[in-house]
Amino acid sequence: MARPKKDPKKADPTPLKPLEGYEPCGTRGPITNLEKKPRMIAVIARALASGKSRKDAASKAGTTDACLRQWMKRGDEQSLQGKETLYTKLLVEVNHAEAHFRGQLHEVEFRLLTDPRRYDSKHLRWRLAISDPKHFTQQAGDLESSSGIASFQLMSPEEAVRSVEEKMRRFLQEEDNRVELEAKAAASAPPAAGAASASSPEVADGHQ
């Protein structure tokens, strides 16, 4: 009996090899001084350009994401002062590398748009949101995590417009209710003592 042929479109997935290319970094602790090892900038940038997170890129360079955030903050401050230092170089390289990877994601998304049967943008939108949350996510004020920090949700432009319209409608309704309640409270409140005395004939005529 002939064995059925394998469908080339349903090939077995490539087996995962976690240790392939791995080498211990060999450092006794994280590098906290960028000026001692400026070549770290290229290592961090290449990792980000390949799609790694900032935390993973920092780890690959032998430092921590906390140090990377501090260096980026210093680079941003120095760039605003018109300086050119290792920290401003790091700032430019990190932004350039992340923009490169986002460009790759956009290219893939545009290519998939030509084939609606295979198109699913959920992963791409999620990865873009991780890379640049300020521009690819919208804060969901009514959704909070267990830590009390406001979470984020992905939205299309149409969903964002509907969300803003709904929030505006609720705001206007609450404002109308507030004005109505204040008017009712003012109408039912007893007259002030000063106002009652001023309307009294004795006070009006100047008699005790």
Strand order of the largest sheet: 1-2
Continuous helix count: 9
Q: Tell me the overall shape.
A: extended
What is the percent of helical residues? Answer: 55-70%
Q: What's the SSE pattern?
A: HHHHHHEEHHH
Structural class: mainly alpha
Spell out the key features of this protein.
mainly alpha, 5% strand, disordered C terminus, two-stranded antiparallel sheet, single chain, extended, 208 residues
Describe this structure in words.
This protein has a domain at 30-119. The termini are far apart. The longest helix has 32 residues, at 157-188. It is built from nine helices and two strands, in the order ααααααββααα. It is 56% helix and 5% strand. A hairpin with a 5-residue loop joins strand 1 and strand 2. The chain is mainly α and 208 residues long. Strands 1-2 form a two-stranded antiparallel sheet. The protein has helices at 40-49, 54-60, 65-80, 86-112, 122-131, 133-136, 157-188, 193-198, 201-205; strands at residues 138-144, 150-153. It is extended. Residues 140-151 and 203-208 have low confidence and may be disordered. Helix 3 (65-80) packs across helix 4 (86-112) and helix 4 packs antiparallel against helix 5.
Outline:
With 208 residues, the chain is mostly helical. The chain is built from nine helices and two strands, in the order ααααααββααα. It has helices at 40-49, 54-60, 65-80, 86-112, 122-131, 133-136, 157-188, 193-198, 201-205, and strands at residues 138-144, 150-153.
Could you give the topology of this structure?
Elements: H1 40-49, H2 54-60, H3 65-80, H4 86-112, H5 122-131, H6 133-136, E1 138-144, E2 150-153, H7 157-188, H8 193-198, H9 201-205
Helix pairs in contact: 1-2, 1-4, 2-3, 3-4, 4-5
